[in-house]
Amino acid sequence: MLKQCLFSPTSLKTAILAALVGYCMPAMGKEGMWLPPTLKNRENDMKKMGLQIPVSQLYNEDGTGLNNAVVLFGKGCTGEVISSRGLVLTNHHCGYGTVQGLSSKENDYFAAGFWAKKDEEELPCPGLTVTFVRKMENVTDKIVTGLADTMNEATRQQLVEVRIKNLEKGYKTATGMDAMIKPYFNGNQYWVILTETFNDIRLVGFPPNGIGSFGGDTDNWMWPRHTGDFSMFRIYAGKGNKPAAYAKDNKPYQTKQFFTINPNGYREGDFTMVYGFPGTTMEYISSYQLNQVYSILDPIRIESRTQRLNAWTKHMQASRDVFLKYTSKRAGIANGWKKWQGEVRGLRINNVVGKKQDYEAYFQGLASQDQNLPYADDVLANMAAKSNAVNDALKADEYIKEAVLGIELIQNAAVLDKMLQVLRAKNIANKNDSLMKLAKGLEGMYKNYDVATDKEVFEVLMPLFMQKNTGYIPTAFSNQLRERGNNYNAWSSYAFSSIAANQEKLKSFAETATAADSNRLIGDPAWQLYNGISKMRQEKITPYVSRYYSDMAYLNRLYMNAQMSLDKQKSFYPDANLTLRLTYGKVAGIDPDGAAGYSYQTNLNEAVKKHNPEVEEFNMPAKLMALHNERDFGKWSVGGSVPIAFIASNHTSGGNSGSPVLNAKGELIGTNFDRIWEGTMSDLYFDEKLCRNISVDIRYTLFIIEKFGGAGRLLKEMDIVKACD
Ligand code: ARG
Ligand code: GLU
After folding, report:
1. Distance 657 CA to ligand 2 centre (A)
2. Is residue 106 part of a domain?
3. Considering the entire predicted model, what is its pTM?
4. What is the percentage of the chain residues whose pLDDT exceeds 90?
């Protein structure tokens, strides 16, 4: 559907003015991920920055707000509805895991892409859901009434949980919707979120990796960027347009709330918003916790994942079969690995620990003058003491998570432990049934498992763990290694003789085992490793680490409350918690390190220059090259090319992938998919001069759908503004 409209005199005036003054607006970044129902408080600021619609259009309680066009996509991404027939746009990397499940060597959608030419061709995606947020209400009073701030944390938490359960039940009954109550501001506020989840979701369009992950890990978290990181799905509904399990006869979900698309572009300095589900940020933590992330946790994660990824990559490059098995999990592991490198770098260059310390000195000054919050004076000192005391245990815990449990064999051995419990249990009638159920639970994992790859991971991660954790080595580990002459290859060969390394062996064990076979499990090398690490962790690590997290939950709640009560200069917004937020900023370029130079937008000409058929990450599909060579861009041509991506100063985080990027009128101009290297630290510290979110330009999306995918039918159901207004 194409809407006609004319150039309005005001926008013409702005355009002329902009051309005259060269439009060099300062890069105004805006820290903050705001709760949609509180946007009224931001409306003046947003309007000053350029917003042209009332915030009540973005969110309202009568069901007509644009919040009804934003979805939590799967478990950790965002998507936007772009047609009255439930068409959802999100990132390529958000659909990646689902598409892996639908792909095979014969139907390799990563290589070929996928475009449904009619509704009937849209592919059901088992397990995939999308969730709408219909309404949010502040229920703080109902949750914390009568609970003193300084009440013992465990007791308080127990009471809070009971109240949450009861209140959620009440909301469910009263509204017929799903209700979830979540803490905000470190437990100083609570909101109920009323949602509706659809679970018949079908794949509609997916560009091949040569477009959708163009640039791969090399370009990930980087600007300039040339990735067409989008994919499309459709929501199907059952009777009465309501959520229903998959059924062939379900119909496309009908809705009045969907985004209008504006393909007329933007200029530097234009107002933008990102509406979506940021996952986790920790903007208000003390310098002590920040230092833990910076000097303990991030370095361990980077070090361990470097080893694991090297091993995976080697095997994936040698075999398409291993590639298909590991590509989705590799993308997830590599994504964090690279982000943390940017984070550490940003924290270092910008001396963020020092900045936090300065803030703490300022806070301490406020606290010393205050009479009402007796705990404020000591809260930071208490945090310092607790943090320092736990550092060794925290370090070992992180090595266990990233190195030992980075070996899939050891993770899988958890199932052997469960089998052992079954064999030992007195009250289970048909033990083989239970064992077979357990073995079945690993089927999905074996589908994507390659022993040779995992064995190599063992051989690099085990030495790392053993060298770095001398105070925390389980006896089973040192025994097995010593008995194999301290040779890690011999050790791994022994470990992989485990029945957990072989699906057939595991299955036949499950079918035939009797109580006497407990001994086989106890003698299994992988079970011994799993058991050894779990026991050691339970004794020497978990009690300290859990205690620490509980103490910090308490102290962070008090510290947050004290900051909000005493610091009148700041506008506080709650840390991300995978609930719906709106953030706003401006289209703003940057001059990153390297030769690229200043830019805020990229295009297909630049992408083509990066094309390299020898390198998987930069191997652009021949059809796209042909469209480029023939300048066959259709309506999407801008200056002899097609814009691909742009950056803006919106405060986003992981989970905002796939989020709608909106202009001043709330129209869709792009889909968020990343942040730039200089600003990945923004989960801990947002710097408006450095932080930028990266979005796919909607014109590239439309161009690829229409000209590359030949799926122009989809454009017909969209609401696309024709000329600037
Ligand atoms: N960095 C982006 C995000 O955090 C994109 C990740 C997908 N791309 C990749 N090469 N793994 O999710
Ligand atoms: N790519 C990220 C995601 O999957 C979004 C980028 C970010 O972390 O800001 O959510």
Report:
1. 5
2. yes
3. 0.92
4. 91
